[in-house]
Specification:
seven-stranded parallel sheet, 14% strand, Beta Polymerase, domain 2, Beta Polymerase, domain 3, alpha/beta
Length: 595
């Protein structure tokens, strides 16, 4: 089927554009009120489905009946997909944008600002954008408004500040996808010998300010490469264009991309210099000066003779300074230089060492794919996985369609049936059980005893200290892991207070694992807490918390967090076989003094 958007000069697929558009439509319906909540949920589910598709939606778009077969895509939404593929627009969305203050919609994703609050701000106070809201808060316009006490207003101010700070940065997943597209484009250019992403993206920081890339080429090709770069698809604005470097803004996202072109023999030095971090590089330059050398983006040179000592590769640069090669994720001045000098850097975990995923969701609760499709996807894309743990929500999570006990029992039957068809026990019976305010779980022990793996998580009470709550969960014989232990959502919600030293101790004493949740807005535990947990002797898991097939690739984000936290294979439970995981479960019972 030919469409008007297939040849669009954009990095972004139809799936991504439609997923983003449906998410915007869901926000519009949320703003319009409770009576539109089902439409909001429908468009949000459609957005997740499109994000999870492996192939472009245009391949499904023969007619409405073909699209209707996809989970979360009913007839009405299927019509809108066809309309977008044919025209590049959706009339319903154009009408919706006239009913709602579009500049306020992003604030619906700010913790503590709901649709009713936004409507009140707009209809009663005439506020139509973030700047006006911030000014009203600063000037005390809301100070004596019914329903807006000082604590609530303070929380809104804090949430707005957090959201604003992160709006100037991308989450790691967005940056990786954008960076990979830039590399794909650059690799089309003749004359480029090597192309790599640098900066904080190469170090895999959880948020990224802009994207840095280094390419190598013969000097005669530099000018054509710069011209090719600034005229790539999806370039919205050229910020700078010189002989060796250029900067652009991508049109659809306003992401800044900086390019540096160097000679092939300068590759290692440029890569090291432009990867950073700034503090790491300062220490390296200090070490070089102590030896009578200078270190810059062209190499290491003797100060007196200007003789070039190293620069072709990063490993050569580190070796010249008397240390082992330091992986990019560790270059944050957290003791890595001393370890490299003493040849005692950790052997960081690698994705190929993962044996399975311990936390994922299906259509039984709030996932976008059914269990059979998940199993087929894993076998096709992740053949090294020996197990995956289906971990749908428990009853308290009503918004996420948490399962009742009898539904879990029916799910068990489906898992057993699919495993028989597969001829292997790939699927494990799991649950993400809610930790209630008093630390109890919202599922009885008779049912918990039947699960292969129990992840216990907090989904409420984010302003209180939850250390005791987490302690009680760890002390439960059936809880094997604490999910997203810090409770944060990057740019949306700060984590709840936790005494981390106490939690690490109780996790160790009870034999309970702590999760590194790989969702881009969670990355929880953080890298610094991973390092502290490892030093405390705590066992970790790395899980994707997938809600769509595409999200299984988030594992690379969890791996990145683990590596930044100095994690080795031995620190992560799901690098082991399921038989070894069963032994871990038995050790927990032994630590609790139970049979």
């Amino acid at each position: 089927m030919a469409t008007s958007t297939e040849n669009s000069p954009s990095f972004y697929s139809h799936n991504e554009m439609l997923a983003r558009l449906f998410h915007q439509m869901a926000l519009c319906y949320r703003y319009l009120g409770e009576e539109e909540r089902f439409r909001a949920q429908a468009y949000e589910k459609a957005s997740r489905t499109l994000s999870g598709l492996k192939e472009d939606i245009s391949g499904y778009a023969k007619d409405i009946s073909t699209l209707d077969q996809l989970s979360g895509i009913g007839e009405s939404i299927a019509e809108k997909i066809l309309e977008f593929l044919q025209t590049g627009k959706i009339r319903t969305f154009e009408k919706l944008k006239k009913k709602v203050p579009e500049e306020l919609l992003p604030l619906l994703e700010v913790n503590g600002i709901g649709p009713a609050t936004l409507r009140y701000f707009h209809e009663k106070m005439g506020i139509s954008n973030r700047d006006q809201m911030e000014e009203a808060l600063r000037s005390g316009q809301f100070d004596h408004t019914k329903g807006f006490g000082s604590k609530k207003l303070e929380n809104i101010k804090r949430a707005l500040k957090m959201h604003k700070e992160t709006q100037s940065r991308m989450n790691l997943w967005e940056a990786l996808k954008a960076g990979e597209r830039v590399l794909e484009e650059l690799q089309k250019m003749k004359g480029i010998k090597q192309a790599v992403l640098c900066g904080s993206l190469r170090r895999r920081k959880e948020t990224i300010g802009d994207i840095d890339a280094v390419v190598t080429a013969a000097k005669k090709d530099w000018k054509p490469i710069i011209q090719f770069f600034v005229n790539m698809r999806d370039v919205g604005k050229i910020l700078a264009s010189g002989d060796t470097k250029a900067s652009i803004l991508l049109a659809q996202s306003d992401i800044q991309v900086d390019l540096r072109v160097v000679l092939e023999e300068e590759y290692g030095a440029a890569l090291l210099y432009f990867t950073g971090s700034k503090e790491h590089n300062i220490q390296l330059r200090t070490l070089a000066r102590d030896k009578g050398w200078k270190l810059n983006e062209y190499g290491i040179f003797d100060l007196k003779s200007n003789h070039r000592i190293a620069g072709n590769t990063e490993a050569d640069m580190y070796k010249a300074l008397g240390m082992d090669y330091i992986p990019p994720e560790l270059r944050e001045c957290r003791g890595e230089l001393e370890l490299a000098r003493n040849h005692s850097l950790p052997k960081l975990i690698e994705q190929k060492e993962m044996k399975g995923d311990m936390h994922l969701h299906s259509t039984w609760s709030d996932g976008a794919a059914d269990i059979g499709d998940i199993a087929a996807h894993i076998q096709s894309v992740y053949p090294n996985y020996e197990y995956i743990v289906v971990s749908d929500h428990s009853p308290s999570e009503k918004i996420a369609r948490g399962l009742q006990p009898d539904e879990f029992l029916r799910q068990f039957e489906e898992i057993d049936k699919i495993n028989r068809e597969l001829g292997s026990p790939l699927l494990k019976k799991g649950i993400e059980v809610d930790i209630l305010a008093d630390g109890h779980l919202d599922v009885g022990e008779d049912l918990l005893a039947q699960f292969d793996w129990v992840t216990a998580s907090i989904h409420s009470g984010f302003t209180r200290d939850n250390t005791k709550r987490l302690r009680k969960a760890c002390e439960n014989r059936f809880v094997h892991c604490i999910g997203h232990p810090g409770g944060r959502l990057i740019g949306k919600r700060a984590g709840y207070p936790v005494n981390w030293a106490e939690l690490f101790k109780i996790a160790l004493d009870t034999g309970t694992a702590l999760e590194i949740n790989s969702q881009p807005l969670r990355l929880d535990l953080t890298d610094e807490l991973v390092k502290a947990a490892i030093e405390a002797g705590v066992t970790l898991t790395i899980s994707t918390d997938s809600h769509a097939l595409s999200q299984f690739s988030y594992m690379q984000l969890g791996i990145a967090v683990a590596r930044r936290g100095f994690a080795e294979k031995s620190n992560v439970l799901n690098t082991l076989s399921w038989k070894q995981i069963e032994s871990f479960k038995k050790k927990k019972l032994k630590k609790l003094g139970l049979p």
